[in-house]
Write a structure and sequence with these properties.
The chain is of the alpha/beta class. It has 11 helices and 19 strands. The strands form 5 sheets. Strands 11-6-1-2-3-19 form a 6-stranded mixed β-sheet, with helices on both faces.
Length: 415
C-alpha cells in the first residue's frame, strides 16, 4: 500500500478538529478509510490561541486515525478559515510566449503570477489566485484559452488572502503534530468541493458553512467564484445567548441547544417546558422551550441576514437558481432550512456529499465533515489529474497551481 496513495484532509475548527483519510484504489476509485473528530482546544474563530493545546489535540486526532487505518499519516491538506481571510479582484496581463501566438499552459501560469503580484495589505499572504475569465487581445469571456492564438493574454482572478501570522501559526501547529503540509485551502471552498455539483456552480449557488465560531460563505455562478467571506458568528454564539437568557452555565446552555433548540419559535407550544435539572441545573429550575426557540431564532436570523448581505454585495440576493447549500455542524439545527428559506428567499438544502467515493463509514456523510471530506477530494483530484480540478471553474489550472505560492512561505517553517 503506497504511502502516496493516502490522502488526509484536516479541518481545524473552533469546536472540533476533524480528520478524514482517503486512499485511491488500484481501480482509481477513492475509498474513505477513516473520519475522526476530537473536541478542539487552543483554537478560536479559526485562529490558534494556544500552540501547545492545539498541537496536542491535532496529535490526538492523528493517532486516532492511525489506529483506525493501521498506517502512519505523514501529510495532510489543511483547511484555513477565520475572519482574517479577505478576498479582492485582480487582473494579470502577459505577452504570449510563442512566436506563432499559440497559448500554452505556461502563458496561463505567467498571467496568474502577474495577477498575484498585487499590492497585498501589510502582513497578509495570498492563499489562492482563482481565475474567473480570460481575454485574448480584445476578445473577453474566454474560459479555456489553451491552443488559441493571440498576442496579449489577460486573466481576471479572485485573490484570497490570509493574515500571515495566523497562517504560520496553523502551519507550525500542523507540523508539530507530525504532518507535512500538502496544501492549504480555504475551508469553505473545500466544503463546496464535496457538497456542490458543477451544474449548481454553473446555475448559481452559495455554500454556507455554519461552524462553531464562524460562518463561511462562498458564492458561485457560471463556474466562477463571485465571493468568499468568513463571518465572526457561529453556533457557539447561540449557546452564549441561551446561557445569558436562561442565566445558566455554558455547558447547560449547550445541552439545551442540542436537545431542545429549534430555529423557528412559532411551532413550539408555549406551555412546553425544559427542566434544567436534566442537564445538571438546580432542582425546580424550569424554562419555557418557546423562549429558548426565540433566542435561537433571533441569533440565526442575524447570521442569515449577514449571509444575505454578502449576496447583496455581488447582486445575487434572492437570485441564485441553485439556492443555498448549508454544511457544518451548526447546519443540523432543526427547522434551519425553513427559517433560511423565509429569510434568504431562495431554495435551501442541507448539504449531501456529491462526489463519488466508497466508504463504509456513515459519519463521513455528516455535514460537519464537509470541509475535511472536501480537502481529501481536492487532494485526490490534484494528485490524480491537475487539469481536472474544479471543472469549468479552473479550466486546465490544477489545484497544485493554487497551493504553489503558499508552499514558498510555509516551507520556511520546516527545519
Amino acid at each position: 500500500m503506497a504511502q502516496q496513495e493516502i490522502i488526509t484532509g484536516l479541518d481545524i475548527g473552533s469546536t472540533a478538529i476533524r480528520l478524514v483519510v482517503g486512499q485511491r484504489t488500484a481501480e482509481g476509485q477513492l475509498h474513505i478509510l477513516a473520519a475522526v473528530s476530537v473536541p478542539a482546544e487552543g483554537v478560536n474563530r479559526g485562529v490558534i490561541t494556544s500552540l501547545d493545546d492545539a498541537t496536542s489535540v491535532l496529535s490526538a486526532a492523528k493517532e486516532k486515525a492511525e489506529r483506525i487505518t493501521g498506517m502512519p499519516l505523514e501529510s495532510a491538506w489543511v483547511g484555513i478559515s477565520g475572519p482574517h481571510v479577505i478576498t479582492s479582484p485582480s487582473r494579470g496581463v502577459v505577452a504570449v510566449g510563442k512566436a506563432n501566438g499559440e497559448i500554452e499552459e505556461s502563458d496561463i501560469d505567467r498571467a496568474l503570477e502577474a495577477a498575484r503580484a498585487v499590492a497585498t495589505p501589510p502582513n497578509y499572504e495570498i492563499l489562492h489566485a482563482i481565475p474567473k475569465t480570460f481575454t485574448i487581445d480584445s476578445q473577453p469571456g474566454i474560459k479555456d484559452p489553451i491552443g488559441m492564438s493571440g498576442v496579449r493574454l489577460e486573466v481576471e482572478t479572485t485573490i484570497i488572502q490570509g493574515l500571515s501570522a495566523q497562517l504560520k501559526n496553523v502551519m507550525r501547529c500542523v507540523y508539530r503534530a507530525g504532518f507535512r503540509v500538502s496544501g492549504v485551502i480555504l475551508s469553505v471552498l473545500a466544503a463546496g468541493e464535496s457538497h456542490v455539483t458543477e451544474r449548481q456552480r454553473e446555475l448559481g449557488v452559495a455554500v454556507v458553512n455554519l461552524g462553531g465560531a464562524t460562518t463561511s460563505v462562498a458564492v458561485f455562478e457560471e463556474g466562477d467564484l463571485l465571493a468568499a467571506e468568513v463571518l465572526p458568528l457561529g453556533s457557539e454564539h447561540i449557546t452564549a445567548d441561551i446561557a445569558i437568557g436562561l442565566r445558566t452555565s455554558l455547558d447547560i446552555a449547550d445541552q439545551v441547544k442540542l436537545n431542545y433548540g429549534t430555529a423557528v419559535a412559532n411551532g413550539v407550544n408555549k406551555r412546553e417546558e425544559i427542566d434544567l435539572a436534566e442537564f445538571g441545573g438546580d432542582e425546580g429550575e424550569v424554562v419555557s422551550r418557546r423562549y429558548v426557540a426565540e433566542i435561537v431564532e433571533a441569533r440565526l436570523e442575524e447570521i442569515l441576514d449577514k449571509v444575505d448581505g454578502i449576496l447583496k454585495k455581488v447582486d445575487r440576493s434572492g437570485m441564485l437558481p441553485a439556492g443555498v447549500v448549508f454544511v457544518g455542524g451548526g447546519a443540523k439545527m432543526p427547522e434551519l432550512i425553513e427559517l433560511a428559506k423565509r429569510r434568504l428567499r431562495l431554495p435551501i438544502t442541507l448539504g449531501e456529499p456529491k462526489a463519488s467515493f466508497m466508504s463504509a463509514i456513515d459519519t463521513v456523510s455528516d455535514v460537519a465533515f464537509a470541509t475535511a471530506l472536501g480537502l481529501v477530494l481536492w487532494g485526490e483530484a490534484t494528485t490524480r489529474d491537475q487539469g481536472s480540478r474544479w471543472g469549468s471553474m479552473l479550466p486546465n489550472v490544477g489545484a497544485g497551481k493554487l497551493v504553489k505560492g503558499v508552499r514558498s512561505w510555509f516551507s520556511s517553517l520546516l527545519p
